[in-house]
Amino acid sequence: MKNIKEFWKNLIDRYGYPKVSIAILLIILISIAFGQKGQSVPNLIIDSLVRIGMNGVLVLAMVPGIVSGTGLNFGISLGILAGLLAGCISIEMNLKGMSAFFIAVLISIPISTLVGYLYGWILNKVKGDEMTVGTYLGFSIVSLMSIFWLILPFKSPYMVWAIKGRGLRTTIALSDSYAKVLDDFLAIKLFDAGIPVGTLLFFGLLCVLMWLFLRSKTGVAMTAAGDNAKFAEASGINVNKYRMIGTIVSTVLGGIGILVYAQSFGFLQLYQAPLMMPFAAIAAILIGGASAKKAKISHVISGVVLFQTLLTISMPVFNKMIPEGANLSEIVRIIVSNGVILYALTKVGGGEVNG
């Protein structure tokens, strides 16, 4: 009994409650799935890989903000809006295929950089309240942008309301532009489903680039500024500058991330859709072992794998268990994501979630 307690304590100390708890829940769900008739566990795993690729870059976007000292980026919606705008511009240019996707990415970078600069300037003015201000700012700009989606001068018949001839639709199909261009690149057919090799490679490439960036001179200075601002200032590091850099990089990755998500999903979702997207990304990186003050690439990868696999497997498993009941999988998603965020925020003033 004593050995079990010591093993459990060591496990929690090393990985944190969220990662261990989600891993245990995931093992239970997979075991149940194996025992359910008509349930294909291999297909569920492939579906999980699709969702991992879809959401990975958005989770990666959390790292620069945390490392630079601005905390969990609840304002990543600003980068998402920049990416959506770039995606619409790409469609308006009547581009198709891989070129349409990468042109959208290239367009999103300067827009996200400008938005990130303004966002970073605000965060530098409200030190200590970044997460609160980021949430408020994100919600406000998403609501304000809902007006602009109606008045922006786009003309493409794929995007505007058919009857009015103006104003963008709530959901824009990408079937005629860049739907699944990364998913289908080098895709491997297995169990009547496709493993999205291209999307996973793109996510992996960005993880490698972020890993290299954090080890560059700029990345090390940014990490030092976020780790201990007073010591960094005493060492001659411009803390505000590196907080700004972290915010800009996070916003740019948010813009790229939504384009990766959209090409896999097959649609651009405008208006209120970006409102709650930061919460899933934040929950994922926290499950991976990050905290409001510390994050690594390993936290991103393990977090997105655990969180998205849990969501993917929980839906069919719960639907089989209670076919005529409520959508328990959605309830589980809300409980897990909000519960993990609440747990992490209680750690801001105390200990850290280890990973």
What does this structure look like?
The protein has helices at 2-15, 17-35, 41-60, 62-68, 77-92, 97-125, 130-151, 197-214, 217-227, 229-234, 239-265, 277-287, 297-321, 328-346, and strands spanning 171-173, 188-190, 193-195, 267-269. The protein has 355 residues and is mainly alpha-helical. The chain has a domain at 39-274. The chain has a two-stranded antiparallel ribbon with strand order 1-4. Strands 2-3 form a two-stranded antiparallel sheet. A hairpin with a 2-residue loop joins strand 2 (188-190) and strand 3. It is globular. It starts with a helix and ends in a 9-residue tail after the last helix. 44% of the residues are buried.
**Helical element count?**
14
- Beta-strand content: under 5%
Secondary-structure content class: mainly alpha
Major sheet attributes:
2 strands, antiparallel
Distance between the termini: 25 Å
Mean pLDDT: 85
The quaternary structure here is: single chain
Helical coverage, percent range: 55-70%
Report strand order across the widest sheet: 1-4
Global Rg: 21 Å
What is the secondary structure topology, with strand pairs?
Blueprint: H1 2-15, H2 17-35, H3 41-60, H4 62-68, H5 77-92, H6 97-125, H7 130-151, E1 171-173, E2 188-190, E3 193-195, H8 197-214, H9 217-227, H10 229-234, H11 239-265, E4 267-269, H12 277-287, H13 297-321, H14 328-346
Antiparallel strand pairs: 1-4, 2-3
Helix pairs in contact: 1-2, 2-13, 3-8, 3-11, 3-12, 3-13, 4-11, 5-6, 5-11, 6-11, 9-11, 12-13, 12-14, 13-14
